[in-house]
Amino acid sequence: MFSVDTHTHIISPDTTAYPAAPLGGHRSEWSRERPADLDELLRQADAAGVEHLVLVQASTVYGFDNSYVADQLGRHPGRLSGVCSVDFLSPKAVDDLGHWIGERGFSGVRIRAADGTTAVPTPGRGLDDERMTPVWEFLSRHRVPVCIQMHAQHAPVLAGLLARYPGLTVVLDHAARPRLDAGTDPYPTADGLPRLSETGRVFVKLTPPAVLRAQREAGSAEPLFRALVGEFGAAHVLWGSNFPASAGSLSELAALVRAALPELGDAELALITGGTAARLYGLPATGGR
Questions:
Q1: Domain with residues 4-281, CATH architecture
Q2: What positions does the domain Amidohydrolase-related occupy (predicted)?
């Protein structure tokens, strides 16, 4: 079964070529405690049987300088895809996107609209800050997937963006901290706007942080994951290990996510394991090794 890990990070030991410049000036603790460069990530992926990796820019280390990931994409173009970070508020954000995606081989971009394990400043007044308009227009026009780290409370704003930009495709990083109360929709809705799942352009990324939060706050992640797969469909669900930001080997992290999935048929499992990601990022459904 083709396996794609859609959420990994890499940290270079070469601090001269790739100096740290984290968003908000505060470097993530995980990157100090358990940094992994590309070679270590590949060893972990081989041991876990993962055939393709999506490298997500570690913005809590390198900010908007995507050079380290870009240089690694060139080493293994058949096995790696990349998600860059740019400053959506910058007047030159579209030029930056053209550089990293058009010239350096990235397949997507990420914006952090809310904290994860490391606090970062919220960009402007949020996802609908008017200064981001050129970026949303670019992503919609070129159909570039955008990974968004946000919380469920931001869903109505995102629904508005999806209505305004018909080519916009979104991946909810770490499942966007959905609501966990039984019988409550995972994401709030807004009058006059479709549910996120109804757009057909929202993908949900299941990761260890999503598993552990649900276990901690609701006792189990399995009801949440069952609800998300039911709401969005397996063709809009993918997984990521969050290695090495989450503690553990890539094999252990993959097993953690897998164990939280509900009972699925082979076709649904194949989609979540790699088929959905292959379609989203335009990958051949075979390994690139």
A1: Alpha-Beta Barrel (3.20)
A2: 4-283
CA distance 54 to 277: 9
Model confidence at 112, in pLDDT bands (50, 70, 90)?
confident
Helix (H) or strand (E) segment spanning residue 208:
helix 208-218
| Residue 64 burial (C-beta neighbours within 10 Å; 0-12, 13-18, 19+) | middle
Decide: pTM greater than 0.85: yes
Shortest CA distance to 173 belongs to which of 247, 250, 245, 77?
245
Give the bridge partners for 205, in sequence order.
Answer: 238
| DSSP-derived secondary structure letter, 121 | P
Region at 283 (left for phi over 0; alpha for psi -120 to 50; beta for the rest): beta
What the block records as the tokens of 122 is: 């919220």
- State the chain's maximal CA–CA distance in angstroms: 52
Residue pLDDT, tens place only, 114-144: 766 666 666 777 899 999 999 999 999 999 9
Name residue 41's amino acid: L
Distance from C-alpha of 25 to C-alpha of 241, rounded to nearest angstrom: 25
Mean pLDDT of the chain: 94
Indicate the domain borders of the chain: 4-281
- Give the distance from CA 218 to its chain's centroid: 23
Question: Which band of pLDDT confidence, cut at 50, 70 and 90, is reported for residue 182?
Answer: confident
* Residue 202: burial class (beta carbons within 10 Å; 0-12, 13-18, 19+): buried
The answer to whether the peptide bond before residue 244 is cis (omega within 30 degrees of 0) is yes
